[in-house]
Amino acid sequence: MAMHATDLFLRPAWRIVMPAALAFSLGACASTPGAPADAASAPASPPATRPAPASPQAFAEVVKGATREDGHLPTWRRDDKVWIELAPARLGQPFLLTINITGSVGQRGLYASQMGRSWLVEWRRMGDRLQLIALNTAVRADGDAALSRAVREGYSDSLLAALPLASAPHPQHQAVLVDASFLLGDIAGYGSAIESAFRLSYTLDRANSQIERVRQSERLTAVQVRQHHTVPRLPVLPPAANGPAAVARPSPPTVLPDARSFFVDLVYNFLALPEQPMRPRAADPRLGHFTHAHTDLTRDLPVQPRVHHIARWRLEKADPMAERSPPREPIVFWLDRNIPERYREAVRAGVLEWNLAFERIGFVGAIEARQQPDDADWDNMDARHASIRWYVGIDAASARGPHHADPRTGEILDADIAIADLFARGARRFIVDTPRGSTEERLAELTAAWRGEGAPAACHYAREVAAEAQFAWELLEARGDIVPDGPQAEAFVQAVIKDVVMHEVGHALGLKHNFKASTAVSFARLGDAAYTAARGTSGSVMDYNAYNIAPAGQPQGAIVNTTLGPYDYWAIEYAYRPFASDEEVQGLARIAARSGEPALAYADDFDAGGLGGIESFDPLANRFDLGDDPLTYYERRLVLSQELWQRVQAREPQAGEDPLRARRAMLSGFGPLRTSADLAAKYVGGMVQVRDLPGPRARPTYTPVAAAEQRRALTFLTRHLFSEDNFRFRPEFLRSLPTDYLDRNVAGPVSVPELVRSVQATVLDRLLSAGTATRVLEMPLYASAGEPVMGLDEVYRRLQAAVWSELRRGGEIAPLRRQLQREHLQRLSALLTRGSGALPADALSLQGLLARELLAELDHALRRPGGSVTTRAHLEDSRALLARSLDASFLRQP
Where is the signal peptide (predicted)? Predict the structure, then answer.
């Protein structure tokens, strides 16, 4: 309903909120040299005269000529001016403020279609000013008046915006107006993400920013704004620096017409909280759900006062008494109109697959997938529409399944899954020469901080899947099983998309990663086509599941996991099975008690390692493995890489084909090996961890990996990944691998030594780490009586003997082997000269002993006649470095 009022010019009422630290410093008193020591004896200065503040203008005059739009927070608009109308009942009433990104730069993590931050907020009036306050929900004392006062005094809220009233109260309903242009400021903190990505201080240009439109509903006001960011000049860069300094160099965006200017589109969602809060559901550590946690000070009996409520949608049966019933309100995911039509059915299938889990607990049609019309006048980034968004970015190959929830209960109110277009292209081999862990990738990860997410919320499945898909594609094409434009290739791409959508929808339903789920399927079953088609290749779609490719001539099961696993059904049951309030605790306990079943194995991101420098020690908790015997799987991956290299070298290039095809195939064989090297090394000093709670049937939390399995892993690493024979390429093949002469993403010939070094360095870093040494040394404490253990001296001796095997038998040392020996010696020298506060003293002593033995072997080898000049120079250089390191180690001793 639109209404018009009188016209009146109004000054912009927005002001920049001064950072608290700056305000404090400006307001602090500073002593003046020569001032009286006793301030009380000094004559008081007369108080400064302050002009009386101007009274806000009358409501009717402010909105003269403006159009009103009803909704949760009614808005008024005249030309480019927008005011928000706040009734007295809205003041002091908590609601959810969320910020989503609908348009961005398209590079280094600054992408469109991303969910941003959210806060529980309220409006507070301070005389003729209004404050938008983010409420502190981290610590609570509900129901205890005294403690609640202590919490309010002890834990501060945060100020998101402050602004003067744009009008006096309305004479009848007492509502006031605020100028909505405060939303053109950087409430989202997006400027930090921009600076992290480009190392440039772009300025938010308010003069060229604007409110685009407002969308209203009874419980939501969504304001879409376009912000302009600019920098007056781009810096003239000094010569590039090596090492960490290179990361800090300004690096302007490369995808813009002019790198000095770009726009960012945001949607601010002012969302009313549910009138009746959903009954929260307690988390259980035996299975994985995202949680909304707080400290409850009213509970003084538990040692741990932290309360974790799982994140879940409010799903209730339309007929609570029926065994099977549709929900009162289904969970609806809108398929973005930007999803290419050829992929929409695969996306829809990935969404609807989850109905299988809900049907088991009595819900019919719990999830719906609806297509956004091409002519829709609404944006599915507003908080009314959970969605599957398709976005582009020059370096984007990821998918995310985040959500916004009621922090009081964990009720999910909105979720917008973002899937990169480049991910789908990656399934068709468009990713080339992009090493994981590159500077570009690290900068992209830095931009995630502005969302306020914890590490477990990050998901890089699609990016990693793209690399896995590339390897699978290259090998299948080399075998002749698929051709780029054939039906098998299209089926493969569609399966990959469904797999990723299932994974991200699982996140949007509240499920965390499960990096032990792949062990739920026996290795023998992976070759069973019927079994894997019906039941999948893993126990969960929430794992990072590798592609199931059998060696040539062996039975082939389903390549891509495209159905839910036992764990997925279990996790959905725990989160969504309806219970009467007096039955919920016992019912949830019965569900969680099944955690000991092998098909329900669970481990999260921390168990798999790699977050915040955490080193994983459970060889069964991994990203990208398959089967209940991961070590056998790693041995298979080496065989598959060698098969790919043999086939691509034997193939004759055809006129008119992609000139980068052979280069891409050759490089893709190394990615899986780097992963396999790191994961296989986890067996050495490994501990299998389970999440049982105390009880008569509880399994031990930690079980040492059997010594025989540790030795088997060490043999695989040192015999196969240290062998030069496994990395031989024909010279004529290497000479035929061109770069991309038009785009120059890479330059020059392929460096086989560098590719091999990346694999072998991964092994050395893991085996020589402080964590591995500590666990191996402490393993006897965990072993049962008479159980054999592998000592650290055996680990270090076998490793050193494998690296320096040529010293005993004599003869020429091949280039790749000399490189491996230098890598080992560099690490050994660093330990001897600089020490390590983390490495146990016994490990340092062993390294010193073995270094002296190695020095003696080098002396003996140098006395042996023969060998090339290069080999002799290498041995002399190695001997000199080791001798200096031992001398330094001796001088360093107290």
Answer: 1-30
Instruction: Give yes or no: residues 75 and 193 share one domain.
Output: yes
DSSP structural state of residue 330: -
Residue 24's pLDDT band, with cuts at 50, 70 and 90, is: very low
Task: Give the pLDDT score at 663.
Answer: 92
Q: Residue 543: what residue type?
A: D
**φ, ψ dihedrals at 401, nearest 5°:** -125, 60
For the chain, state the CA radius of gyration. 31
Identify the pLDDT of residue 635: 96
Query: How far is the C-alpha of 497 from the C-alpha of 494, rounded, in Å?
Result: 5
Does 732 share its domain with 880?
A: no
Q: How far, in Å, CA of 591 to CA of 573, rounded?
A: 8
d(CA 223, CA 71) in angstroms, rounded, equals 12
Give the CA distances from residue 702 to residues 165, 279, 714, in Å, rounded to whole numbers and listed in that order: 61, 35, 21
Q: How confident is the model at residue 55 (pLDDT cuts 50, 70, 90)?
A: confident
Distance of CA 658 to the CA centre of its chain: 33
> Which of 440, 455, 602 is CA-nearest to residue 515?
602
Residue 826 CA to residue 168 CA, distance in Å, equals 73
Q: With 60 as the cut, is the pLDDT of residue 444 above it? A: no
Burial of 511 (0-12, 13-18, 19+ CB in 10 A): buried
Which residue reads 């031989």 in tokens?
728
Average pLDDT over the chain, rounded to whole?
A: 88
Cβ partners under 8 Å of residue 741, min gap 6: none
Q: Are residues 812 and 797 in the same domain?
A: no
- The Cα–Cα gap between 144 and 137 comes to 15
Query: Taking Cα atoms as reference points, which of 675, 199, 274 lies closest to residue 471?
Result: 675
Q: What CA–CA distance (Å, rounded) separates 684 from 787? A: 16
CB 273 within 8 A of CB 408: yes
91 bridge partner residues: 123
Secondary structure, 3-state, 816-843: HHHHHHHHHHHHHHHHHHHCCCCCCHHH
pLDDT at 854 over 90: yes
From the list 511, 635, 486, 637, the residue with the least C-alpha distance to 564 is 511
Is the C-alpha dihedral spanning 704, 705, 711, 715 positive or negative?
A: negative
> Does residue 92 have a pLDDT over 60?
yes
Bridge partner list, 704: 687
Give dist(CA 780, CA 775) in Å, integer: 9
Same domain, residue pair 218 and 154: yes
Within-domain flag for 876: yes
Same domain, 130 and 209: yes
Is residue 778 domain-shared with residue 847, that is, in the same domain?
Answer: no
Beta strands at 416-420 and 386-391: parallel, antiparallel or unpaired: parallel
Q: Is the pLDDT of residue 246 over 50?
A: no
CA distances from 690 to 291, 566, 693, 752, 759 (A): 20, 17, 9, 40, 30
pLDDT tens-digit map of 293-317: 999 998 777 677 899 999 999 999 9
Q: Kindly report, residue by residue over 386-417, the tens digit of the pLDDT.
A: 999 999 988 877 788 999 999 999 999 999 99
Beta strands in 562-665 (DSSP E): none
Beta-bridge partner residues of 220: 271
Q: Which of 409, 395, 113 lies closest to 264, judged by CA?
A: 113
Instruction: Give per-residue pLDDT as tens, 556-584.
Output: 999 999 999 999 999 999 999 999 999 99
Q: Which domain holds residue 852?
A: 808-892
- What is the rounded CA–CA span in Å between residue 123 and residue 134? 9
State residue 892's pLDDT score: 56
Asked if the structure places residue 156 within a domain, the reply is yes
C-alpha to C-alpha distance for 247 and 244, rounded to whole angstroms: 6
For residues 492 and 499, give the distance between their C-alpha atoms in angstroms, rounded to a whole number: 11
Distance CA(409)–CA(414), nearest Å, equals 14
Position 358 in a domain:
no
- Give pLDDT, residue 32: 33
